[in-house]
Protein 1
Amino acid sequence: MTSPTNPYRLARSVVPSAYRIFITPDLDAATFAGRVEIDVDVREPSSLLTLNAIELDMGAATVTAAGTAHRSTDLTIDEEFETATFSFDDVLPEGPAVVEIAFTGVLNDQLHGFYRSTYTDPEGAQHTIATTQFENTDARRAFPCWDEPAFKATFQVNLTVPSHLAAYSNSPETSNVDLGNGQRTVSFAPTMAMSSYLVAFIVGPFGETPAVDVDGVPLRIVYPGDNGHLTGLALEAGAFALRFFSDYFDIPYPGDKLDMVAIPDFTQGAMENLGCITYRVVDLLVDPANASLAEMKRIAKVVSHEVAHMWFGDLVTMEWWEGIWLNEAFASFMEVLCQDAFRPAWKVWVSFGAERDMALEIDGLHATRSMEYEVVSPEDTRGMFDRLTYEKGAAVLRMLEQYLGATTFRDGIRHYLRKHSYSNTRTTDLWDALEEVSGEPVRDVMNTWIYQGGYPLVTLEGGRLSQQPFAYGAPTGPSAIGKDWKVPVRTRSLSGGPTSSHLLGDQPVTVTDEAPVVVNAGGSGYFRSRYGRRELEAIADHIGELEPLERATLVSDSWALLYSSQSTLNEFLAIAKGLGDQDEPTPWGSVATAFNFVNRALDAEQRQRFAAIVREVVGPQLRRLGWDARPSDGELTPQLRAVVIGILGTVGDDPSVKAEAVARFEGNRVTGDLANAVLRVVASQDRPGDYETFYDRYRHATNPQDEQRYLRSLASFHEERVALDALDKCFSEIRSQDASSVIGILCTNAATGPSVWRHMSARWDEALEKFPLNTLSKMALGLPTFIDDVAFADQVEAFHREHSLGGEQKTVEQLIERMRVGLTFAAAVRQQI
Ligand SMILES: [Zn+2]
């Protein structure tokens, strides 16, 4: 199990089995004091004891073995490997022992380890929370431990806190002792055997919903401030997910209770601590009366994702961090499956097509990476929390599920989870389990997707399917794009008949379906498709007959071919015009993306001409849909309406849309599905005083969705004074959890982006100090939009090459390459208007 050559890993000479953790935070002083007692098995007698600890002030360790207490005489801290080694005068004997260490630490502001989060209530009073975030390797900042996923143990947590504050951890409360001094000690039941990165403890002025009994599992939503009225959707989605997964996996929920806790400062979307899932506020709390469908989908999605992890991740866990991609890919796949059952009318597999597209956009770059790669240090895993892990991983699993059949796939997953419960696995264990159940060469197929980057372009021409690697441009250096995937391709004839399945390898295969034929039937394949001239002509008149995801895939593939200069704007416009009157927003989302990029490439005079084209293509949709809800609306119509208004009011420069958006803003009618589009259209008009109003509404928002809408819309103003003010606020008033991404979005502004980037790069060191790790690469989000000035792009590239972000630099390299692809695309498209 140990990798003796990897200095970042601990030896298995001492193995923990049970922790008892005692923590007393001082929220005012932002410090904590603690003590751990750890039951261990000493497997190799030694006078040294090494475990993980960093940023902790520790006393001596006492090891009690065979009735004798051994007290350490020396302590060495290794800052690089984040270990503490205690030395003893005598040898610790083989066999069971108890390790005891007392320590103190600081509640940091870095949003990792045991950290401080704050919020201001509507009366202006500030409140402090102490909370944890341990994945990947930050439990060691809160208590000394064997901080690797393979060292599973039980954790029993005891928190001594001011009596008026609430306290939560992974398990149910077992005792609550009033200490008589304004403090109380809350003790929690021991957890199941699990990894240290899943431990959580949280203290603060929280409210909570009454527990809902979900087939014996108490489920609560825990929230800061007075937000109980925003918990309904999360409760409903959480209860649904608990039942859905207990049934799908055919294994009861592995915890004893489930609390879902909203934390005001949080770097990720959420964290799957067993029984105590933590969330970014906007990903848990919502007022459905004011929310858009997209915002509600987001909450159901994140909740489903985290609940899936209780089994896949928590009950069965990767042996080492290179397996993290499968953990996340699987939860991202299961979240869609669960959401699709929760709200079938949302058609989430179609909206998943848009998320998959974001992965395809990165994975078609030479700077892509293979999904699995060797991980030595924890730093190596920082690059893993990206779209390739989540969206590509989920898409490849979906393709596999469709290939094996949903029931066979599910049975394989059940087999895998049962076989490895409470223990650790490698990626290949899952392929083996699926192979055992299906009899299909799963490992062989999956290896071509896991160990090389990229994906194929599958072409149907002359009745034959063939593959070649897809790339947005020619390589200028080493390329991570592979070749010869084993591609499960499904085709079907639009004239009817069954779907045909092919496993396409390096040799072409013949398709016998009658024309017109859809490649990627059902739309679940992770590849791009291209049709020969005759095949495309055959299908062009039948776009309306495609299934929604097939149609969405056709549009996004057409955009990819245009963006990579493999087709023309006119070819893309023909597809967009062919979309006709349907209510699925996803294809129009791809059209909006494409139109935004084309717009960026053009000069002022060309933009006017292009705006007329946009109005011609999109205008009929707004005339059909109108601004307000209609009895004829489908479930997804409001989302489509928002996409259409957003394009027409910005790139389309439509005066009546701009005027109506302003009227709604002034009449304070900015809610629900149209809110984001209306705010973007209003901001882009740069009316005096609007920026100040937006910022004020952000600061005093009464729900998290409004807060995020106003915050992110700040990037749509075109005045430099305003953009630089917003940038400045990212360094002062805006929460550090949001700062990097707001800066990234500010950089995407066509008028002010380059100026914001220059000022941001001048404050780079300050940003690195202030903003949490794993959010830093978001500051470079604007790079793909810098496509109209080669000299500026050179300057941007040089800067980001010189200022590497370590584990996050891979993401920046991809953004640089996208900028280069965009420059080529822009030069080509300028000739086509
Ligand atoms: Zn996850």
Protein 2
Amino acid sequence: MMSDHSLYRPLRARLRDASGLAAAAAVSVAAAACSTSAPATPASTAQTAQLPPLKVVDPSYMDTTVKACTDFNLYANGGWLKRDTIPPAYSETGVFKDMADRNELVVRSVLDEALAKAKSLPDTSTEYKLGTFYGTCMDSSAAESAGVSPIAPQLASIDSITSAAALISEAARLQMAGTNVLFRYGPSVNAHDAEHYIADFDRGGLGMPDRDYYLNPAASADSMRRAYRAHVTTMLVLGGEDSAAAARDADRVMSLETAMATAQLPRVARRDPKATDHQMAFAKLHELAPDVDWAAYLRDVGLASPVSLVNVGEPAYYKALDALVAKRPLEDWRAYLRYHALSSAAPWLSSAFVNENFAFASRFSGAKALLPRWKRCLRVTDAQLGEALGQAYVAKTFPPDAKAKAKAVIDDIRAAFRERLLRLTWMSDSTRAHALDKLAKMNEKVGYPDTWRDYTRLTVTPGAFVLNNQRAARFEWERVAQRPGQPVDKSEWGITVPTVNAYYDPSKNEMVFPAGALVPQTFDPKADDGANYGSLGASWAGHEMTHGFDDEGRHYDAQGNLRDWWTPADSRRFNAQAELDAKQYDGYIQVDTFHVNGHLTLGENIADYGGALTGYDALEHALARDGRPGRIDGFTPEQRYFIAYAQSFRVHSRPEGLRTRVKVDPHSPENWRVDGPLSDMEAFAKAFGCKPGDPMVRPRAEVPNIW
Ligand SMILES: [Zn+2]
């Protein structure tokens, strides 16, 4: 289970957002929802063949009327950007959508096979569960005729709350069914004992994607608040309230959530791991928030034995929440829970719910239409039962030699990063020794898990899909419930195999690259080194590796413990260079008056820069070792390296999505992920003959010298 305090930092986290952005961002499963649509038709290999293969470097994407030294992103991607139209159901197009489209056809064939066989399988078999989960999701007419009735018992249970104790019990039930209310609880890796899990309490419970939407005095935020209030009202009416009562209840929800938002830390402040590191005896949590029976809460969420130690991410939030639980009338809380229960179920209820949910989410994403139902159902099936379909996906897409070649590129990047660490002039030898040790011990997972998740304890039944979805959320909750105090499962994967994404987890000191990301356009075992090192090497492997040493990851040691292994002088030098980086990105205007936030995006920008530098070194080594090919498509290996790097960020976004991103996404918009790092690199200027004064050549004094 990943929540928004998770330390996973995917390269790009919008197709399947693990971080709780889902309430707003893009075309996530939560944002998408259903309307009446045609039943599933089997995906054939012919359909897969309808999508042309992707190339790691594709010259047809380029616009060579733009000078490489003026705007390299436009040079490498501008031809495609000019031609591209974003389909109505999407917030953005580009490399991630193109790869996901292809992966989704493969996954669809796996699901269609399971669906076709399900009737003849015992209901205990994993394939039955997979087929039935997907099949009940695809049944739009059942969802339409059921209306709100599948969750009527949940709503009745909320309406019967008459005490603070009952409020917390109900919140626990909702959380276990996958609804984000009041706060977030879950076992996580203990920051000071990375071999064991700890019970972790963090902030949560807002309906909009960030506290800023509640607190920002700007007119744009005010219009979002008005839209949210109207949306809450509509959802409550759909749930059965009359419109006057629903409007009053929407005010209660708004007032509660604004108070909750006020007590939460800003996103940038949370980048410092120490800001959310507050371990305490379990009894202290009772002192902090005395109006909640926390022992009862932990029993409610299935923890069999009491815990002695907990981490409270934001103590001030728990203090404030406690006061709200004690002082606000229970009818405020009932309205709040009712709205969130409806909102969380909405994507899987009748079309009135689906459309209202989508209309609100699209304010943040800019998408103009729902995704086809099969894509929405496929994505939720992957999110909930991903390891049940991962094996079949791997068999169809990822032969052992592709895995071996991807690993070889990643190993070369590791060797190049090691050389950089050895060469750094600003780092003392004692810090360097720790850094080298951390790099050597950094674990890598490539392709797919060694052992697959066991779904024996999951029940999937014919009937309302929304209930199957809640059962799957509960299954996941129960899977990890007893973890506090137990040894960490190092074999676990945080994203599913068909996902076009990757992450570095500092608490395990490991980087993870699923098979779904190790296909063209990211990587092709048959492509030239320039292409593969610029894409997989730099913007994936080098990027994730550098996260171990960015402004956040550097606070963790080789074992994953939050421990300062830097000398004070090295920390000062690192921070001074990081500030240069933040200043560089603060200067980038994204859309209208919306700027990139150089501190929110600092870790990702440092990782991009480290990746681009390291991948280049690895390419030079590979060319020296394997021989230098002639020009391909008219480009030298070095030029192809930079084009591949830029094309690995080939993305076209809607302005609504960009406005949301600069507020909540730690990744800079893609054009800056290209032009930012490359304009800091001498090797780039050399490859394209750029001169001082060209826009793609930043003055050396302003260039951060971190790696
Ligand atoms: Zn990243």
